[in-house]
Amino acid sequence: MPETTRVHVVRHGEVHNPEGVLYGRLPGFRLSELGLQMAERLGEVLGRREITHIVSSPLERAQQTAAPLAATLGLEVAVDPRVIEAGNRFEGKTFGVGDGSLRRPAIWPLLVNPFRPSWGEPYVEIAARMRAAVADVRAAVRGGEAVIVSHQLPVWTMRRSYEGRRLWHDPRNRQCSLASVTTLVWTGDRLTAIDYTEPAGDLLPVKAGFGA
């Protein structure tokens, strides 16, 4: 019988960001107290599975999210830059509702092509690097289970790529909440299922934003 391999791709927990900065890849953005609770919950739930390999984005919030699971299973966390947050030229800026930010002529050239997108890393590149990282992890645990901790846009872009859907999308429709788990299941070399769960769903803020 062909073996079953599962790669659980996790979005990190809530980040402490009271000023609403689009933090992207900036250093210093760590999990909030609630985010740490979400990480503990992930450690409890995923810690019951036969996971033998954990990979994380190099950003602090992702490594903090991976830490409780690693402690539960007695595993080291491997850092893979391929699962980092998407590059974004609005990094470090704030865009409040109705504050007129999008009417500034200086940013208009960044908005000309939402299908690429023109303001950041192309979707096709995000999908390619995420899939390459997943392929390496799958090969390392063939017949077993692994975890990758990443960020909302990379996880969602990866999923749409595997599903054969167009990569550009409305961010409001992403199924990738804080501390969620998107599980890729292979039977032998065939991807047979993509499952989605929210182990920390009861901890989610009423209005979770689209931060990464």
Find the structural class using helix and strand composition: alpha/beta
CATH superfamily name?
Phosphoglycerate mutase-like
Biggest β-sheet strands, sense, barrel: 6 strands, mixed
SS summary, helix count = 4
Major sheet: arrangement of strands: 3-2-4-1-5-6
Count of domain modules: 1
Question: In the CATH classification, which architecture applies?
Answer: 3-Layer(aba) Sandwich
Overall geometry? globular
Strand content: 15-25%
CATH class: Alpha Beta
Q: Tell me the distance between the termini.
A: 39 Å
Helix coverage percent: 25-40%
**Order of helix and strand elements from N to C terminus:** EHEHEHEHEE
Poorly predicted segments: none
Count of strand segments: 6
Q: Write down the overall mean pLDDT.
A: 91
CATH topology: Rossmann fold
Radius of gyration: 17 Å
Pfam families: His_Phos_1 (PF00300)
GO molecular function, one term: phosphatase activity
Protein name: Broad specificity phosphatase PhoE
